[in-house]
Amino acid sequence: MKTIAIMAAIVASCAMSAEAAPRKYKVGQVWEYRARDQDKGSLLKIRRIDADIVSAKIGFIYHISIVGITWADERIPPTLAHAPLSGPALDASVTRLSTQSPDFPSATEGIAAWKRAKGGVWTVPVADVVDAVDRTQKP
Question: Would you list the domain boundaries of the chain?
Answer without folding.
Answer: 24-136
